[in-house]
């Protein structure tokens, strides 16, 4: 697997599995307590997130974004990076809820720590911090 260093962070990431129908199962088994980056499509209302989707070239599945670790609300971060709505960006964080969270929602959760950059064509894999 190739190492990938993205310009706005000193962490090194290696390429993980592609974003496809098996990725949620892989994340559930392998990504807890690891810093990862995911390509996400976000639909924004005036001041909040309406929907978020983990995206691949031929795959899209809804996820919940836990933004409890962010100092500023996610929509404000996104406005400085892109004016698109929906927008497609790389998000860095951890898989699962930040805190113990009990609800009946089966939607997978990604705990966002930061917005990295807009996605580009053919950037559809999990990136895992080394």
Describe the structure.
By secondary structure, the protein is mostly beta strands. The protein is 12% helix and 44% strand. The chain has helices at residues 23-30, 74-81, and strands spanning 3-4, 13-18, 36-44, 49-56, 59-66, 87-95, 109-118, 125-129. The longest helix is centred in the first third of the chain and has 8 residues, at 23-30. The model is unreliable at 1-7 (pLDDT under 50).
Number of domains: 1
Task: Give the ordered list of helices and strands.
Answer: EEHEEEHEEE
CATH topology: OB fold (Dihydrolipoamide Acetyltransferase, E2P)
Structural class: mainly beta
Radius of gyration, whole Å = 14 Å
Order of adjacent strands in the largest pleated sheet: 3-4-5-7-6
The appropriate CATH architecture is Beta Barrel
Given the C-alpha coordinates, what overall shape results?
globular
Termini separation comes to 12 Å
Give a count of the beta strands, DSSP E runs of length 2 or more. Answer: 8
**What is the CATH C-level name?**
Mainly Beta
How many strands, which pairing sense, and closed or not: the largest β-sheet? 5 strands, mixed, barrel
Question: Are there runs of 5+ residues with pLDDT below 50, and where?
Answer: 1-7
Helix content range of the residues, please? Answer: 10-25%
Q: What do the pLDDT scores average to?
A: 85
Continuous helix count:
2
């Amino acid at each position: 697997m190739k190492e990938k260093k993205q310009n706005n962070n000193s962490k090194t990431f290696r390429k993980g599995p592609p974003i496809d129908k098996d990725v949620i199962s892989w994340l559930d088994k392998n990504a807890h307590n690891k810093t990862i980056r995911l390509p996400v499509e976000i639909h924004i209302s005036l001041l909040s997130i309406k929907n978020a989707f983990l995206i691949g070239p031929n795959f899209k599945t809804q996820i919940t974004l836990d933004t409890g670790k962010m100092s500023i609300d996610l929509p404000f971060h996104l406005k400085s990076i892109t004016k698109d709505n929906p927008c497609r960006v790389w998000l860095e964080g951890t898989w699962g809820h930040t805190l113990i969270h009990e609800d009946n929602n089966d939607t997978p959760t990604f705990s966002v720590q930061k917005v990295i950059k807009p996605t580009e064509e053919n950037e559809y894999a999990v990136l895992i911090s080394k």
